[in-house]
Design brief:
six-stranded mixed sheet; alpha/beta; 12 strands; flat; about 500 residues
Length: about 500
């Protein structure tokens, strides 16, 4: 029969869920400013909880209760003194058809500091009503089943998105596309567990086909393949969410600081003719073609300096270069003697800077001071190697072409969130997915290594349950009783 452990887990989970829902349902009514802080044209104050109806009755003089999801222009009064606070819009969202799943109100009032303060003071006079904690509205939406954890994280990323590509990625996650992928994997695993449990408990005396076990194992192999493909994303989603760390690297006085100032359109770094001016890493955040870039101006790399501070700056520059996603290798074009010497010069330049082949694979070569080249030499260099970007920080010649090359490389590093499948955007997801994959591989290895007569499926199936829990930690749902539901719906047991 079904193991006692499964029954015990079901009871604990059901008790926990019931208690949790009751706790959320009976919690305080909360209120908070949903629009931005500071003086503004309109301020939106949201209220959620069981006291919402009483708040509408007390704070308005409406002859009839407002229709759901329809704006009503009304005078708004203080709940205790009955003094008029403002005249604004009221929207009523009865639960569970609301963001939080609870009865919810939105007051749209003028955004003056005194008006918002008066609204807060008035709302606080109602029994068991308090100011919401940071993120508490979204937390209640999660507990009400309005969204899972990946959608919550996507919503947070959407609010903090600074570039177009970040917005697209966050929007897809907030709309549940990443959640759908994880839930599909989880459903496949739950069905596999249900099949194996049915085979263990009912194969001898019920109508459970012998190939049920082999089909379940095949399905698990498929999930393993999907997980590996999902994890093998070169961290594109995380780069897009956090920003592509880009190191501007080169010898002293080749124009690195001028380049970061040019790209940032402001004076980020000090520019002088003195070698070794930049000592520490100077970072600037920039939007290139809709992709977030963290530009880092580094100390000029050279050997033999006796300046202690400059030596420390060079050491930090090398560490920054090793961890960077992208390098902009700046070369003084005026120092290239002839086109025939270009390859040799670059090779010697790399050796001087201490850049290896792996670092060069992440680099875009920028030939700065191209205004000092003759037109014939520039044409010959272009024909010699089309991957070079010609630039003059002085005249800004070549800047559009450099930005276009940068955007192409950024698309390669981050992907295109508008057309590609949702990618892993947080290290938390990657960690739990790796744990899930490890559990599935342990099950697969045991199943193939142990002979049919020596397999103890009742014990090894716990690897599959752990895999389901790992995915549940990503989405915030771990429902053990689902396994029972699948068993009794898939197989006609106990009819």
């Amino acid at each position: 029969m079904l193991t006692a452990r499964l029954y015990g887990a079901m009871f604990v989970k059901q008790f926990f869920n019931t208690t949790l829902r009751q706790t959320v349902r009976n919690s305080s009514t909360i209120f908070g400013l949903s629009s931005g802080f500071g003086k503004c044209g309109v301020a939106v104050i949201r209220v959620s909880g069981s006291a919402s109806r009483a708040i509408i009755d007390k704070k308005t003089r409406l002859k009839s209760f407002p229709e759901p999801r329809r704006a009503v222009l009304t005078k708004i009064f203080h709940g205790q003194t009955n003094a008029m606070i403002d005249r604004g819009l009221l929207l009523w969202f009865p639960g569970p058809q609301s963001f939080t799943g609870e009865d919810t109100i939105e007051f749209h009032v003028h955004g003056g500091t005194a008006i918002v303060s008066a609204m807060y003071d008035s709302l606080a006079t109602f029994p068991d009503t308090r100011i919401a904690e940071p993120g508490e509205f979204t937390k209640r939406a999660f507990y009400a089943g309005k969204m899972d954890l990946t959608e919550v994280e996507g919503l947070a990323d959407l609010i903090h998105a600074e570039t177009e590509a970040q917005r697209k990625q966050a929007l897809r996650q907030a709309n549940g596309q990443l959640s759908c992928f994880y839930n599909d994997l989880r459903t496949q695993l739950v069905q596999a567990i249900a099949s194996i449990e049915a085979y263990i408990d009912f194969a001898e005396d019920q109508d459970v086909d012998d190939n049920v076990l082999s089909v379940a194992v095949q399905n698990i192999e498929g999930v393993i393949g999907q997980l590996k493909a999902h994890l093998n994303d070169n961290r594109r989603g995380e780069r897009l969410r956090n920003g592509v760390r880009t190191a501007i690297v080169g010898a002293p006085n080749v124009g690195k600081s001028s380049l970061i100032n040019l790209l940032s359109q402001r004076n980020v770094s000090i520019v002088t003719s003195i070698a070794g001016t930049t000592r520490d890493i100077v970072e600037s955040h920039y939007d290139i073609g809709g992709y977030p870039v963290i530009l880092g101006d580094t100390a000029g790399l050279r050997e033999g300096t006796e300046d202690v501070v400059e030596s420390e700056g060079i050491a930090r520059a090398r560490a920054y270069v090793e961890s960077a996603d992208l390098l902009l290798l700046v070369v003084d074009a005026s120092r290239v003697e002839t086109v025939d010497r270009m390859d040799t010069y670059l090779r010697e330049y790399m050796e001087t800077l201490g850049l290896d082949a792996d670092m060069m694979s992440r680099a875009l070569v920028v030939l700065n001071k191209c205004d000092l080249l003759t037109s014939g030499t520039r044409e010959q260099l272009t024909a010699h190697n089309h991957s070079f970007s010609f630039l003059s920080c002085q005249t800004q010649s070549g800047l559009p072409e450099l930005l276009e090359r940068l955007k192409t490389r950024l698309v390669q590093l981050c992907g295109d969130p508008s057309v590609e499948s949702p990618t892993i955007s947080q290290e938390r997801h990657r960690y739990h997915l790796k744990q899930c994959l490890a559990c599935l591989e342990r099950f697969r290895d045991y199943f193939h290594e142990a002979g049919a007569s020596n397999r103890d499926l009742a014990i090894v199936t716990h690897h599959l349950r752990n895999a389901v829990r790992c995915i549940g930690k990503i989405t915030g749902t771990v429902e053990t009783e689902e396994i029972l539901d699948v068993i009794f719906s898939t197989f006609c047991i106990g009819k």
